[in-house]
């Protein structure tokens, strides 16, 4: 099995240039950057790739409209640079991961005439900052045009709208694809492997103790440098290195709710520019449904944060305020919560005002920590981190400069946006399944299609395009080791429809147990774990 081969490489006593801890956006990005430069890289993640923050975003690739407003109002250069970097990286992500990302039109509804010039000018400035990476020009919409673009908008009191463009992507599969692309570049990667101790020689870090989270087996790994890229959990690793290390992160929680597709047209999102507490809210089409999010509340760092009833009520209240459709709690098909890792500012009382920029820190014993940032700028964060690592760890890289600016992510190199038509003709897929497979797997979709021909072509559940062949493919080629790895991250099913997902569990268990050789004890453990995960936030 693929994972066993990877674990064998982590156990064979070789010395890696870099051990990257953390399989989210940052860690996977760092591993790819370093491997693409020819460094010997190991990447480990104690749970699944993108199991935490990196699979629970608003699915936008963006510069950050809210950050731009704060930058202008307060003449804040940090926020300004974050937006500018974000818009540049947005363009690169849309090019390098063409199958997993797309341009999305968004409407900002305006109910006061005084807001029209202010919002329009701000979004035009947003366009200007994107420079050569501009993906569309903002323009004013009449009341009639705004309602045509987003029919669900509340018409009463609507004065006008502004149309602008941002990017959208599949975050969980993006992180996985980064890890697999890093593997193709020579990195050794493994999920469900935890770092339990930092090893030192003469007071300097020399490696780490690892533990297989699924079996409990422990072993040591040697590395010239260790990069701590564990998102909200960076302080845990920092204190493993130095128990007296002061915390550098604050965390906030953000939830998203999923509604039926009738709440968002398939090609247009909604950006509510100011909620009752001054935040920005989005209603976006995604995978045939509507995402509503997000909240922003101070939070404790936990692995699987639970959505609060107050947060759900907050989102429903604002959707009702801006929609001509009645939205009830019973309309919610799924809800999930994630933590944002924010670089701490002890003077800031509101987590919404903490910078989403990243910082790189070196410990006295040689632990390099990358903290903060956001999904859109993962590549820039990785570039800065690997540049710094080469310097402080005195590494010799065959390619000393970053190689990822034009590097296609797995699935993107030969992607054809009309590839679904080929899948329909060759495999007789229904149009929705063909379109889904093409945008999810890109130029790898044919491999899933071939597996489907071996008796795995059935839908996992009615009204969703996910098919049985994906389960087999995830277990065989994508390091899926748990049922929830497949349902919540290799496919989007659990994020979209909790009740439908529960119906699929027996069949997913059957396929994975056969492929991975699970005994009854493991099947029972997986059944219990999956039920537990589906009963709370994903």
What is the molecular shape? Answer: globular
Binned, the helix content reads 25-40%
Rg, rounded, reads 23 Å
Number of helices: 18
Low-confidence stretches: 345-355
- The count of β-strands is 18
In whole angstroms, how far apart are the ends? 27 Å
* Binned strand content: 15-25%
Mean pLDDT: 92
List the helices and strands and how they pair.
Layout: H1 2-11, E1 15-21, H2 25-36, E2 41-44, E3 60-61, H3 65-74, H4 77-96, E4 101-110, H5 115-130, E5 139-142, H6 143-149, E6 160-169, H7 171-184, E7 188-190, E8 193-201, E9 204-212, E10 218-228, H8 234-241, E11 249-260, E12 268-272, E13 281-286, E14 289-293, E15 297-298, H9 309-322, E16 334-343, E17 358-362, E18 367-372, H10 378-392, H11 419-427, H12 431-441, H13 445-452, H14 468-477, H15 483-490, H16 493-496, H17 498-516, H18 520-535
Parallel strand pairs: 1-2, 1-10, 2-7, 4-12, 10-18
Antiparallel strand pairs: 3-6, 4-6, 5-6, 8-9, 9-10, 11-14, 11-15, 11-16, 12-13, 13-14, 17-18
Helix pairs in contact: 2-7, 2-10, 3-4, 11-12, 13-14, 14-17, 17-18
Short overview:
This protein is an alpha+beta fold and 538 residues long.
């Amino acid at each position: 099995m693929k994972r066993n081969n990877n674990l064998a490489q982590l156990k064979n006593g070789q010395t890696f240039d870099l051990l990257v801890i953390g399989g989210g956006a940052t860690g996977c990005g760092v591993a790819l950057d370093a491997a693409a430069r020819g460094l010997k890289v190991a990447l480990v993640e104690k749970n699944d790739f993108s199991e935490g923050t990196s699979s629970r975003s608003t699915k936008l690739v963006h510069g950050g409209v809210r950050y731009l407003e704060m930058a202008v109002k307060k003449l804040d250069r940090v926020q300004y640079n974050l937006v500018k970097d974000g818009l540049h990286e947005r363009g690169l992500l849309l090019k390098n991961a063409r199958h997993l990302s797309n341009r999305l039109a968004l409407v900002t509804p305006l109910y006061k005439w005084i807001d029209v010039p202010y919002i329009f000018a701000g979004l035009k400035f947003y366009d200007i900052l994107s420079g050569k990476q501009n993906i569309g020009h903002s323009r004013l919409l009449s009341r009639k045009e705004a309602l045509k673009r987003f029919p669900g908008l509340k018409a009463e009191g609507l004065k006008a709208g502004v149309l602008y463009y941002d990017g959208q992507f599949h975050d969980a599969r993006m992180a996985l694809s980064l890890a697999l692309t890093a593997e193709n570049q020579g990195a050794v990667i493994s999920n469900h492997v935890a770092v339990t101790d930092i090893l030192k020689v003469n007071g300097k870090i020399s490696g780490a103790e690892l533990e297989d989270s699924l079996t409990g087996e422990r072993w040591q790994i040697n590395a010239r440098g260790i990069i701590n890229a564990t998102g909200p959990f960076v302080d845990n690793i920092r204190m493993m290195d130095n128990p007296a290390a002061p915390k550098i992160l604050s965390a906030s929680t953000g939830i998203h709710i999923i509604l039926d597709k009738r709440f968002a047209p398939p090609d247009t999102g909604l950006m509510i520019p100011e909620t009752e507490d001054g935040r920005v809210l989005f209603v976006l089409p995604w995978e045939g449904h509507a995402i509503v999010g997000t909240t922003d509340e101070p939070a404790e760092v936990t692995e699987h944060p639970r959505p609060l009833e107050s947060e759900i009520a907050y989102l429903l209240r604002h959707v009702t305020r801006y929609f001509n459709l009645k939205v009830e709690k019973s309309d919610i098909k799924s809800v999930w919560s994630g933590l944002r890792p924010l670089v701490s500012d002890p003077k800031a009382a509101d987590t919404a005002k903490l910078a989403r920029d990243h910082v790189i820190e070196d410990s006295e014993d040689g632990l390099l920590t990358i903290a903060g940032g956001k999904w859109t700028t993962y590549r820039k964060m990785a570039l800065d981190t690997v540049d710094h690592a080469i310097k402080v760890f005195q590494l010799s890289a065959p390619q000393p400069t970053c190689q990822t600016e034009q590097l296609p992510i797995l699935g993107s190199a030969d992607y054809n946006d009309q590839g679904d038509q080929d899948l329909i003709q060759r495999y007789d897929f229904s149009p929705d399944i063909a379109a889904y497979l093409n945008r999810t797997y890109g130029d790898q979709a044919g491999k899933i299609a071939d597996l489907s021909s071996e008796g795995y072509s059935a839908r996992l559940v009615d009204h969703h395009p996910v098919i049985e062949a994906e389960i087999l493919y995830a277990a065989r080629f994508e390091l899926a080791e748990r049922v929830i790895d497949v349902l919540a991250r290799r496919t989007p099913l659990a994020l979209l429809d909790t009740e439908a997902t529960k119906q699929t569990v027996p069949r997913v268990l059957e396929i994975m147990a056969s492929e991975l050789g699970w005994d009854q004890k493991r099947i029972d453990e997986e059944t219990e774990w999956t039920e537990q995960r589906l009963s709370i936030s994903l």
